[in-house]
Amino acid sequence: MDQTTAIGMFESLSSPVRLDVYRLLVRRGPEGMVAGDISAALDLPPTNLSFHLKTLTRVGLLSVTQEGRYQRYRANIPLMAELIAYLTEECCAGHPELCVDVSALSGCVDADSDLPATRREP
């Protein structure tokens, strides 16, 4: 990942609405949500939500698929993992293997695992 991509992602997530949308879709996992359900869950007008969904999709944080007349949005978790790796690649003086395993802290499970993800609350 390059700095320009990372900055675009951070700028996109700097909006409270977009951060709420992204976190909601992370919680939903691979199933994602259709735009109307996101709007209802966050109590946002559809026109307002549309602007935010386009911004998150443009930077790659969300993917969207057409399902009939609906659009289903999903969080791009691998891209977020890349962003975290970008932020921590210089950890421990350039030896990230010596640092804490950030992916283990995320609550996510390896895609090859049958175990469900658990959410850690602070």
Give a nutshell description of this structure:
The chain is mainly α and 122 residues long. Helices cover 53% and strands 11% of the residues.
Which helices and strands, and how do they pair?
Elements: H1 3-13, H2 16-28, E1 33-34, H3 35-42, H4 46-58, E2 62-67, E3 70-75, H5 77-88, H6 91-94, H7 102-105
Antiparallel strand pairs: 1-3, 2-3
Helix pairs in contact: 2-4, 3-4
Features:
mainly alpha; disordered C terminus; Arc Repressor Mutant, subunit A; 122 residues
**Main β-sheet description:** 3 strands, antiparallel
Roughly how much helix do the residues carry, as a percent range? 40-55%
Ends distance? 29 Å
Mean pLDDT: 84
Structure description:
With 122 residues, the chain is mostly helical. The protein has a domain at 3-75: Winged helix-like DNA-binding domain superfamily/Winged helix DNA-binding domain (Arc Repressor Mutant, subunit A), CATH 1.10.10. The chain is 53% helix and 11% strand. The chain is built from seven helices and three strands. Strand 2 and strand 3 (70-75) form a beta hairpin. The model is unreliable at 110-122 (pLDDT under 50).
